Every structure is written in C-alpha cells, then in structure tokens.
C-alpha cells in the first residue's frame, strides 16, 4: 500500500512549480472599442448538439457529432481571413497539440469554427489541410475538423461558450476575443483557456480533466491529483492541500506498518524466550 502513495508524492514533487504571483491592481475599465468582445466564463454550458454547420467537405454536420461521449473536445472560434489574432490563437493551440502526448482523433477531438458567414467549405478545406500538415500526425475520422456556418448558427455557439465578437466597420475586420474551450465527452464546457499561447501544463491537464478518467493512463490521474484549476490564475496550480493530505496519509500508513512489524517482532521474541525458559 505504501509504495503507490510514495510514488504519487514523488511524482508530484517533480512537478512543483513556483507559486503564481498575485495580479497587480490595475484599471479594469474596458475601452469602448473593446466592449463586448471578451470571454465570459460559462462552465458547464452544454454544446448545442442540434446546431447544424458545414464541414470542410461541404457536408452538413450537427455539433453533437463532436460530443459523442467518447472523447473530450477542443473548440476554437475564429475566421479564416483574420489578418493576425486568429492565426496566433490557432498556432498556439496547434503547438500545444504537437507537444501533447495525446493525439487528435485518438484521445480527443479538435474543432475550429469560423464565425465569418463569408467563409466557405473550400476555405475551411484549405485551412484544415495546412494545419493537418503542420500537425505532423495522422488524424483519423473527425479528429481535427474546420467548420463554417451562417451568422445565426455560429452566434448561438459563441453565446453558449461566452465568446464575444463583432464586425468593425472602421477596419473591415472582426474584433474578437482570444481563447480555446475544452468540453467533456458528453458536451459540457469544462475549461476556458485564455490568450494566444497554451502551456502544455494547462492544455494537457484541461484535456485530462475534461476526459474524466474515460481516457488516459494512470499517470494522467496522478497529474490531476497533483494539480487543480485556479480561476484566479486562469490555469492549473499545485494542489498543496491535497498533497499535504496525501503526505499525512503516507505518514499514518508508515507508522501503522512500523507498529505492526514491531509488534510481530516482539511477539516472536517473546515466544522464543518462553520456549528457551521451558527448555531450561
């Protein structure tokens, strides 16, 4: 019993990271040009399964296809003609996917949905081909798809996950938020990852957490034991309290084992002494 507990603590000790610095006080006033394009946390939101979009081959698909109950889902919202931010987000997700031990299509699905109604399945096909090539791993089935849709459908999806975007007439571009969304296999929003880069610790743990033990190895469960999600840090941090509880359990177990061994040795010694006294 003690060996697994020792192994757990040893693995967690190797994963210790410096504590996250508390955020400095700052002016939280949102500039008018940025109003309405942030991300609102909506944990537990259900993916609109009946929503119909078109994939890179032009086929109509329901979103429920990507929440079939067997794999977590990574969702990215963007548009294919975005001059900068969408590519940065997609590249950040791609880098995290490349660094992950899990493979798209095998342990999880990745889905990119354009919120620009002008984007076509042909544009989605070209975009997907570029990213599949850059991914460098074979992707089976619907493991890494690019979808397009009409304004109402995509807006419904964006509202579900709390993703803000709007058209800017001044720049003739979309102003939008930056992030990725992790869903459980049954289509519930598990975690929202912010920004344009996604450290493997956050990305990998979010996928493992969303998987809920249905996918992954014993090592994945160890990682989830050692870390927990901190909404203030918007990422995963070392679960100090949990580790202290585990250390306490190890201490108690070791003490119990020592006492049992001591009792057995003393009992054997007493029996041997009794036999020696009888013989003499």
> Helix tally?
7
Poorly predicted runs of 5 or more residues: 1-26, 213-229, 238-243
Shape: elongated
Run of helices and strands? HEEEHEHEHEEEEHHEEH
Quote the average pLDDT: 78
Range of helix content? 40-55%
C-alpha termini separation: 43 Å
Strand order of the largest sheet: 5-4-3-8-9
Gyration radius (Cα, Å) is 26 Å
Beta-strand fraction estimate: 15-25%
Beta-strand segment tally: 11
Brief rundown of the structure:
It contains seven helices and eleven strands. It has helices at residues 2-14, 85-99, 121-135, 151-161, 200-211, 218-226, 240-279; strands at residues 52-54, 60-62, 73-78, 109-114, 144-147, 165-168, 173-176, 179-183, 189-194, 227-230, 235-238. α1 packs antiparallel against α7.
Short key terms for the protein model shown above:
five-stranded mixed β-sheet, 18% strand, alpha+beta
């Amino acid at each position: 019993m003690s060996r697994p507990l020792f192994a757990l603590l040893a693995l967690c000790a190797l994963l210790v990271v410096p504590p996250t610095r508390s955020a400095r006080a700052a002016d939280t006033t949102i500039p008018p040009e940025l109003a309405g394009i942030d991300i609102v946390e909506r944990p537990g939101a259900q993916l609109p399964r009946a929503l119909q979009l078109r994939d890179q081959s032009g086929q109509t698909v329901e979103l429920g296809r990507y929440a079939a109950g067997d794999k977590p889902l990574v969702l990215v919202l963007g548009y294919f003609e975005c001059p900068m931010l969408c590519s940065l987000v997609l590249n950040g997700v791609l880098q995290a996917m490349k660094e992950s031990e899990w493979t798209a299509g095998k342990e999880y699905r990745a889905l990119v949905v354009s919120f620009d109604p002008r984007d076509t399945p042909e544009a989605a096909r070209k975009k997907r081909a570029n990213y599949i090539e850059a991914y460098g791993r074979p992707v089976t089935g619907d493991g890494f798809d690019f979808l397009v849709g009409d304004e109402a459908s995509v807006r419904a999806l964006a509202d579900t996950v709390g993703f803000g975007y709007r058209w800017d007439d001044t720049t003739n571009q979309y102003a939008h938020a930056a992030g990725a969304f992790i869903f459980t296999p049954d289509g519930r929003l598990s975690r929202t990852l912010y920004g344009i880069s996604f450290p493997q610790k956050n990305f990998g743990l979010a996928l493992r957490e969303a998987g809920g033990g249905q996918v992954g190895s014993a090592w994945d469960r160890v990682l989830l034991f050692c870390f927990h999600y901190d909404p203030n840090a918007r990422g995963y941090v070392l679960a100090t309290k949990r580790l202290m509880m585990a250390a306490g359990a190890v201490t108690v177990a070791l003490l119990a084992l020592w006492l049992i061994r001591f009792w057995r040795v003393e009992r054997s010694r007493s029996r041997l002494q009794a036999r020696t006294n009888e013989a003499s």
